[in-house]
């Protein structure tokens, strides 16, 4: 009798534990409670294959380089490391090149092998590291053992020689400065506005930045390139508050509806801070008031515009 | 004798519990159309935010979003919300603009001159393992995505519809690309604007 009681209790306990384990197991597998950030950013890119001429046109740098592996930054972006061994176009300031792409390049490249790679220099005031965009990662990457290796070199050489002036530059001139000197920053600032931060437009998950919707309330240097004064400005996280006004120093924006970028890492000031900086104080004293016109089209209005265009021009 | 049968009962129940817990979450998949062995899913009523940054009427971005939404909702029995231009916390976010505009957002890893669209998962995690035959498939729960469609890369009307639907497929969990060029999920410029059964089945088996 005693034995029976002693056995029943552990059996029940074990059975309950089994059930709890199973429930926990299923719950954990299927209903994660946290919202984790990815360990490695996955980016799917859709697009067409570029011809060799287009790849050369897109590139600021072309080189034979040894693939030496990759590292993942704090935001989950993989940076693929290459060591240039024979530079064909452009010049590198460093022995190691950091190339970025959303594709899993490590599945196409083998450490220690030399590849002919086409890169576009990425200049950004928001990045600490000089990075290069990897052109056409979806293609097979050629090594010296591949049949097309020499032909591709000959073809690239012929393209470069066909228009030497076009390919002589080392990329576009930077539109920002890494200097903290106000005169230098002012020199790099094509636009200086007093803006009110209206809303968050989008937060980046791959960089410490947020794009804000802003309204221009005064112009200190030049006018907004779009007529209505509604600006999108990319700023470092936690440097502004929605609803408040700031003096912003911006790089040249040439398109009709651009996302403005900062002209330096110190290009956002409260009006009080700006008053303490002699150059900005002088600009503020000559600032012109500006009235932003709200631009809030409804979905129906946008769809009607698109449909009208299709009706008028047809579809291909 | 009784002790022995209790021990047997315990062993069988533990084994059954473990077997059940792994088989209930692991599925044997019937379809596979991707070049990558990952697949994802969002909740069945994802909210959708969009911004048409290039406001040109020749860029049919909202038309394309509505077409993509309609076809994917029908394929997956989902209820992707009406696109909102104000819900910045939506789980699915779409941006349409010039290459320069999209680049300046700082939300996407590099896209070269051949690029027409891109999708990035802003938050996701591995949620289960499935099998397609003997092939191990990793399932991901997607908590947030951002997609871009470029307006100034020479896309025709149908190219734009295809690219937007393609990015929406990625956002919903279509990892990798289809090798069949008649699929919307094929990587490359095309004028296919109707989802085929192969690509619908590929993703809908996870949404069931």
- Please name the CATH topology of chain B: Collagenase (Catalytic Domain)
Largest sheet of chain B, described in full?
A: 5 strands, mixed
* β-strand amount of chain B: 15-25%
Spans where pLDDT lies below 50 across 5 or more residues of chain A: 28-36
Rg over CA atoms of chain A: 28 Å
Class of chain B, according to the CATH hierarchy?
A: Alpha Beta
Q: In terms of per-residue confidence, which ranges of chain B show pLDDT below 50 for 5 or more consecutive residues?
A: none
- H/E series of chain B: HEEHEHEEHH
Report the mean per-residue pLDDT of chain A as an integer.
87
Mean pLDDT of chain B: 90
Q: What sort of overall outline of chain B do the alpha carbons produce when their principal axes are compared?
A: elongated
Shape of chain A: extended
* Largest interface pair: A-B, 75 and 81 residues
Strand content of chain A: 25-35%
Distance between the termini of chain B: 47 Å
Task: State the CATH topology of one domain in chain A.
Answer: OB fold (Dihydrolipoamide Acetyltransferase, E2P)
Q: Structural class per helix/strand content of chain B?
A: alpha/beta
CATH architecture of chain B: 3-Layer(aba) Sandwich
Report on the architecture of this protein.
The complex is a heterodimer of chains A (316) and B (208). Helix content of chain A is 27%, strand content 29%. Among the domains of chain A are: 52-162, OB fold (Dihydrolipoamide Acetyltransferase, E2P) (Beta Barrel); 182-289, OB fold (Dihydrolipoamide Acetyltransferase, E2P) (Beta Barrel), CATH 2.40.50.120. The termini of chain A are far apart. Chain A contains 7 helices and 13 strands. Chain B is α/β, with parallel strands linked by helices and 208 residues long. Chain B has one domain (33-207): Collagenase (Catalytic Domain) (3-Layer(aba) Sandwich). Chain B contains 5 helices and 5 strands, in the order αββαβαββαα. Chain B has helices at 2-25, 61-76, 99-105, 157-172, 197-207; strands at 38-41, 48-52, 92-97, 115-132, 135-150. In chain B, strands 1, 2, 3, 4 and 5 form a 5-stranded mixed beta sheet that branches. At the A-B interface, helix 1, strand 1, helix 2, strand 7 and strand 11 of A face helix 1, helix 2, strand 3, helix 3 and strand 4 of B.
